[in-house]
Design brief:
By secondary structure, the chain is mostly beta strands. It folds into three domains: 8-317, 7 Propeller (Methylamine Dehydrogenase, Chain H); 318-432, YVTN repeat-like/Quinoprotein amine dehydrogenase (Methylamine Dehydrogenase, Chain H), CATH 2.130.10.10; 442-558, YVTN repeat-like/Quinoprotein amine dehydrogenase (Methylamine Dehydrogenase, Chain H, 7 Propeller), CATH 2.130.10.10. It is 1% helix and 51% strand. The protein is built from one helix and 52 strands. The strands form 13 sheets. The protein has a five-stranded antiparallel β-sheet with strand order 4-3-2-7-6, with no helix packed on it. The longest helix is centred in the N-terminal third of the chain and has 4 residues, at 62-65. It is globular, with a radius of gyration of 24 Å. It starts with a strand and ends with a strand.
Length: 558
């Protein structure tokens, strides 16, 4: 997997379906429409002595979330960028905030109307972020050169002052449910718990200034970059997980993808793509100066950055590889997949789709490919005659695909859809709660059981029958702590089915679908575990203990 990069002063064609709001030191705000390759100027511009420092769109109301997707943005000194996919180019309901060097926060809509000006800080307001857990952007917090971190309402009312450090706070971010926030000042990072009156967690993150940070809402890991030319990973308690080697120049930007599986790091003439553990996929060296901001598209396949020389960096992921037994699928461009036989190293087939590929997954001798408009079901016995299904419009892009032996699961913005490999829809489950999106760790499927963690209440597990969408077994499973990872064994019938999950403390538990008179439904089987992986042909499961030992666990039928 690697990034294909193009630099330009305007948007490139591979930013398909993505609209971008940009502002820079020329005091202009522009909305770029990629379909027509045009820019629409905003009527609101700034005075010559006022410069923008950060830009972010608001979260949407519940109804707006059904048709729109957004991504967060951090600051650029030369090009502030916000990517977004939505049906109407300019809707008055969509609000974005913009911070400036004169200490103010500007709230504007896409029609160019100035909604409100908040006098937030003495000196420059460096960064502001909307509350992730309040649809519609009803509140947020900001940091400035005066060393203060403040929470504001959308109406411009000051709710509280979180911190008064005395040194500039250069970057900040929320966690997934907006109950914690992380901010950095000097060489230290702070994690503040909002619903409990306790002192913030504080630690020295880098040798020198911490320049940027990003908190993944999916895997709950914090990514930081500093003037010591390193980028580092931390857990939600500030404990170190990984540290890079020092590079030649300070790290200027970091950004998690929305699914939490990878992140991007920007520096001077350097862009690196890494997986969630810090391992590097690729490193590119574009001639663009320092990459001051990075922003992922909703499908996590495209990346746009703002550079210190005033150019926009456009990148999309290519050469994604999936392996099932002796079959390897390689996405070589936006619409083409090569199928290779690993035993002979020969390319057997070249598969093409009409639209750009959003997601693909291989397993059980099938390759499922989701594009922006259709879903392709390829059978390894006959690659040339796929089953093609039209996707529902207005439900958003496919964000996740999960496979089992007899059926597969498609996850989009508003629903879960289970289909068999003949293309027949078995059930459609509407999601009533809003919260963090599903990922590979929070949803899994077997032939007779669909298991998912509640998006809002992370200690709750829901069970469904994939054949009809009804509640399976004895219903939901309630745990005492938040659950971070779940899996289910694939062998046997519903009587043999067992659910294995990890909580936030690293403890591993096994749970019954049906109690059948058993005294307990949940039992603890291990500690300090991670990366649960069930075997597809036997009732075995592999896991890592303390990130050092590989364990193979027999799933017992207690």
């Amino acid at each position: 997997m690697r990034l294909k990069i193009k630099l330009s002063n305007t948007l490139s064609s591979h930013s398909e379906g993505i609209n971008v709001i940009s502002t820079s030191n020329d005091h202009l705000i522009k909305l770029w429409i990629t379909e027509k390759m045009e820019s629409l100027p905003f009527s609101t511009n700034f005075k010559d002595k006022i410069f923008p420092t950060s830009l972010q769109m608001s979260n949407y109301s519940s109804k707006e979330l059904l048709n729109k997707q957004t991504i967060n943005i951090s600051k650029l000194s030369s090009s502030n960028i916000k990517q977004e996919r939505y049906s109407n180019i300019r809707s008055g309901n969509e609000i974005f905030l913009l911070t400036t060097s004169d200490g103010k926060i500007y709230l504007l809509n896409l029609n160019g109307k100035l909604e409100r000006i908040i006098d937030a800080h003495y000196g420059a307001t460096i960064m502001a972020r909307w509350n992730n857990n309040e649809p519609g952007g009803s509140g947020g917090f900001a940091s400035g050169e005066d060393g203060c971190v403040k929470i504001w309402s959308r109406n411009g009312m000051l709710r509280s002052v979180i911190a008064q450090i005395g040194k500039p706070v250069y970057s900040l971010d929320w966690n997934g449910d907006s109950t914690k926030l992380v901010y950095c000042s000097g060489d230290e990072c702070y994690i503040k718990q909002l619903n409990i009156q306790i002192s913030p967690i504080k630690w020295k993150a880098h040798t020198g200034l911490v320049t940027c940070l990003c908190w993944s809402s999916v895997n709950d890991q914090i990514l930081t970059g500093g003037e010591d030319c390193r980028y580092r990973l931390w857990n939600s308690q500030g404990r170190p997980l990984w540290s890079s080697i020092p590079y030649n120049f300070p790290i200027s930007s970091v950004s998690w993808s929305h699914n939490g599986t990878m992140f991007a790091v920007g520096s001077y003439n350097l862009l690196r793509l890494c997986d969630r553990s810090g391992w590097s996929y690729s490193m590119e060296r574009p001639n663009c100066g320092s990459i001051l901001c990075l922003s992922w598209s909703p499908d996590c396949l495209q990346l746009i950055g703002g550079c210190s020389n005033g150019q926009l960096l456009h990148a999309h992921i290519i050469e994604k590889r999936l392996i099932w037994e002796q079959i390897e699928a390689i996405q070589i461009n936006r619409r083409t997949i090569n199928i290779r036989d690993l035993t002979s190293e020969i390319i057997r087939e070249r598969l093409e789709t009409k639209d750009r590929i959003i997601r693909m997954e291989i397993g059980f001798n099938f390759l499922i490919v989701a594009t922006s408009k259709q879903c392709y079901i390829f059978n390894s016995k006959n690659w040339n005659n796929p089953i093609v299904i039209d996707l529902n419009e207005g439900s958003g892009l496919i964000s996740l695909i999960r496979l089992c032996e007899k059926c597969f699961l498609l996850v989009d913005l508003i629903s879960l859809q289970v289909l068999n490999y003949e293309g027949k829809i078995l059930c459609n489950i509407k999601m009533l709660s809003f919260g963090e999106p599903f990922n590979e760790q929070t949803i899994t499927i077997a032939n007779d059981l669909l298991v998912l963690r509640d998006r809002a209440q992370h200690s709750l597990i829901h069970l469904f029958d994939p054949q009809n969408g009804r509640v399976a077994g004895d219903g939901e499973i309630q745990h005492q702590s938040n659950i971070v990872e779940i899996c289910v064994n694939q062998c046997g019938g519903i009587v043999d089915r067992r659910i294995v999950f990890l909580d936030i403390n690293g403890d591993c538990f096994i749970a019954l679908v049906n109690r059948y008179g058993a005294p307990e439904r949940i039992q603890k089987i291990g500690s300090l575990l991670s990366c649960l992986t069930p075997n597809n042909s036997t009732n075995l499961m592999a896991a890592l203990q303390d990130n050092q030992k590989l364990l193979v666990i027999i799933i017992l039928f207690f």
